[in-house]
Structures are given as structure tokens and as C-alpha cells.
Amino acid sequence: MASGQEKRSELDARAKQGETVVPGGTGGKSLEAQEHLAEGRSRGGKTRKEQLGTEGYQDMGTRGGETRREQMGSKGYEQMGRMGGLTTKDKSGAERAEEEGIDIDQSKFRTKS
Prior knowledge:
Blueprint: H1 4-16, H2 31-86, H3 93-100
């Protein structure tokens, strides 16, 4: 049976070959890097939630879209949503809208001053 150190060495070698050996460690080039990535991803929202409290954290999520709509105005926010819906892996929403002849007024994207 392999010792803990031998097992870690084996996992590290597999990670260096590009394999994900730690759940949530996607993108890490070593076992240690994958462990750190996984830990950071699991902590991400929790830290902010601890700072704001549960109600504050929920309110922040609710306010996000409303704040942007207030900045851009309803028309700009609507246009931005239309463009986002057209976006694909290969092309931006603006490119697809132009190709398909869909009129999107980007002047409405400007934030109110």
C-alpha cells in the first residue's frame, strides 16, 4: 500500500499532466495549486456573506440588477439584455445583431450623468 507521501506524489504528477485531481481544483498545474483553488472557490461567497450577514447578502443580490437599471434607465437596460441574449461563444451580441439585422440602440447603454 502506498504511503501518504507517495499518493500525493502520484496525484501531483497527474495534476502536472493537466488532470484535475482535486474537486474544484480546475486549472491548477500542481496538486498544491489545485487544493488552493478548490479552497478559494468554496470560500468565495461565504466570506462576503459573513461580512454582510444573511439578510444583507440577499439584499445585495436583489439590488444588483435594480442598481444597474437605475444607472442606465429602463430602455438601456432592456437593450443590453437583448444584446446579451444574442451572444454566443463565437460572436459578441453586437456582431450577431449586425449580421441578423437586429436593431440595437447602443446609445442607450450610456449611464445617466
